[in-house]
Write a structure and sequence with these properties.
heterodimer, A: mainly alpha, MetI-like fold, 80% helix, 0% strand, globular, B: 299 residues, alpha/beta, Rossmann fold, 6-stranded mixed beta sheet, 10 strands, binds adenosine-5'-diphosphate, binds magnesium ion
Chain lengths: 269, 299
């Protein structure tokens, strides 16, 4: 029903972009007034929140300090290596668990137990388990991305139409061929949903992971700005993480759309 | 009642025998079932969906299973496909027991099962891919097969872009490319509108006259069964049994004009009586003494 409403009153591309920009501009404007007027509502107060202008000048400073590239580079390397491992592990385990009752019984209980544990709680153990702090940080971004990928893969595999599997068996497909030719492509749209969400949660865990970093990383930059009470820089860090997370999720989604061209046709509409 | 059709029977058999000295052109695809029972469900809810049926279907024969919804037609077809393992009895194709699904026994369902992620030609070529045929060769064969069902011009489309009738034609092509001994069809035109359904029935007869396989076709539509089949096996509701083995000896090729002939009407009347009679009858399945003897008609 909701999608019907959406398509029914679909505005032109130009107005869509205008509305989206306008909504961001409105948020910035609100922030501007709240912070410059130091609005204090009791439960929430903006008296210590840095103004947009302060944040912009902090961005300018960061750009000129040539610390930005090493920060970005370290963070990207950590997020992507953790994410990549989570993608491989999540999709493999998800296919296994989705297809085999035995694997489900063996693997799901410990995974369900680990799933609600937040990234912060992993820090001490990660430090103890991995001799290098780089490995512990990668591990924490890995835990962030793993579960969305795993659960969406399982969901996708279990949702594959059993009639398609029956048909493929009648057409001569072996169990391996069924997995490769039917289950995997059938679950692919759902796998990409998981990969896209996992990309976001991987960035989500970055600040936590880089709490143990010595020097570089956007998360570290954000965290250390807080420690030294450099409030404008905190917001810069937050914006950078938001932007990078959004951008890489979008990238994954586009790759997914490109690999599942049939899906858009039969899907939403 | 049957005399009218016995006359035509001989002419049809002549047609078959003329092509090849003694036997029909197709030698493979004989189905043999003896005391075949199929149970469905598990534990306390387990029940006999098909009960001790005997039947034999000759190679190249077109047989319709006709019966009301829920009488076990799909179950029986599922056993022929190898998706359901019978509880007891014999079920053989060319003397070989059925142990699982095989490309030799192609199945077409009411709603298509084309892979949404493959375009039409790749869907049709799927069976060849499973046999390790290289891409160029399997595309060539798939296009040839699409030509047979009159759809060579949609080769690069996605299944969701085709109409229901086209999807079923692709489904038939995808099964026939494996040169199956049996073509099993479970109400394949049941979801189509009346007009398309008629066209599809004629197309199917046309294809079957060119690519001869044993064809077992499930339907609850009397007209459809009479128009298509060499023989109709009429089934009764739970537990599924055959109550009538009805030869349909109208000359082939058949055209839509057939359905308005008096002979057709008469046979239709007969089928209606059979099915109605079954509906009004007290279901015997709860009797601990077994079935009343008159329902056990050997076929
Ligand atoms: N997997 C199943 N488990 C339990 N009962 C089933 C199952 N499949 C079908 N049935 C029941 O078995 C009977 C025969 O079903 P089916 O062979 O599909 O009938 P038909 O194809 O003639 O309509 C029906 O009463 C149906 O409700
Ligand atoms: Mg059925």
């Amino acid at each position: 029903m909701a999608s019907f409403k959406k398509t029914n009153a679909r505005p032109s591309r130009f107005t869509t972009a205008g509305m989206q920009l306008g909504s961001v501009a409105a948020c910035v404007l609100l922030w501007h007034f709240a912070s410059t007027l130091r609005i204090d509502l009791g439960v929430i107060t903006f008296s210590n929140v840095p103004t947009p202008q302060a944040v912009i000048s902090a961005i300018w400073q960061l750009l000129q300090s040539n610390a930005l590239l090493p920060h970005l580079g370290s963070s990207l390397a950590r997020v992507f290596s953790g994410y990549l491992m989570a993608a491989v592990a999540g999709v493999t385990l998800g296919l296994l668990i989705g297809r085999s009752r035995k694997a489900e019984n063996w693997l799901m209980p410990p995974l369900e137990l680990l799933r609600p544990i937040p990234a912060v709680a992993w820090i001490p153990l990660a430090i103890l388990m991995f001799p290098s702090s780089e490995a512990s940080m990668i591990f924490i971004t890995f835990t962030g991305a793993l579960f969305p990928i795993l659960l969406n893969t399982i969901h996708g595999v279990e949702a594959v139409d059993p009639r398609l599997i029956a048909s493929s068996r009648s057409l001569g497909a072996s169990p391996r061929a069924i997995l490769r030719e039917v289950v995997l492509p059938g679950a692919l749209p759902s796998i990409f949903t998981g990969l896209s969400i996992g990309m976001g949660t991987s960035w989500f865990c970055l600040v936590t992971a880089e709490m143990i970093s010595g020097q570089w990383g956007i998360g570290y930059y954000t965290w250390s700005s807080y420690v030294i009470q450099n409030y404008a820089d905190i917001v810069v860090g937050m914006l950078l993480i938001g932007l990078l997370g959004m951008g890489s999720s979008w990238l994954i989604k586009r790759i997914g759309d490109w690999l599942t061209p049939w899906y858009r046709l039969q899907g939403k509409s | 009642m049957m005399t009218i059709f016995e006359k035509q029977s001989s002419s049809y058999e002549n047609q078959l025998t003329e092509t090849d000295g003694k036997k029909p052109a197709v030698a493979l695809g004989e189905i043999n079932a003896q005391q075949l029972s199929i149970r469905l469900g598990t534990g306390a809810s387990e029940f006999e969906a098909v009960q001790a049926v005997d039947f034999n279907i000759q190679p190249g024969e077109f047989v319709c299973l006709l019966g009301p919804s829920g009488c076990g037609k799909s179950t029986l077809l599922g056993a022929l496909a190898g998706h359901i393992i019978p509880a007891s009895g014999v079920l053989e194709v060319d003397g070989q027991a059925i142990t699982g699904p095989s490309p030799e026994r192609g199945m077409v369902f009411q709603h298509h099962t084309l892979f949404p992620w493959l375009n039409i030609v790749d869907n049709v070529a799927f069976g060849l891919k499973m046999r390790g045929v290289n891409k160029a060769e399997r595309h060539a064969q798939a296009l040839e097969m699409l030509q047979q069902v009159g759809l060579h011009d949609v080769a690069t489309r996605w299944p969701s872009q085709l109409s229901g009738g086209m999807q079923q034609r692709v489904e038939i092509a995808r099964v026939l490319i494996n040169k199956p001994r049996l073509l099993l069809m479970d109400e394949p035109f049941g979801a189509l509108d009346a007009q398309t359904r008629l066209k599809m029935q004629q197309l199917l007869l046309d294809i079957w006259s060119r690519i001869r396989t044993t064809l077992v076709f499930v339907t609850h539509d009397i007209d459809e069964a009479l128009f298509l089949a060499d023989r109709i096996l009429v089934m009764s509701p739970r537990p599924g049994r055959f109550i009538k083995n009805l030869p349909v000896n109208f000359a082939r090729p058949r055209t839509t004009g057939l359905v308005t002939t008096p002979e057709f009407m008469q046979l239709k009347r007969h089928c209606l009586d059979l099915l109605n009679h079954e509906e009004g009858r007290q279901l015997p399945r709860l009797s601990p003494l077994g079935l009343p003897p008159e329902t056990r008609i050997a076929v």
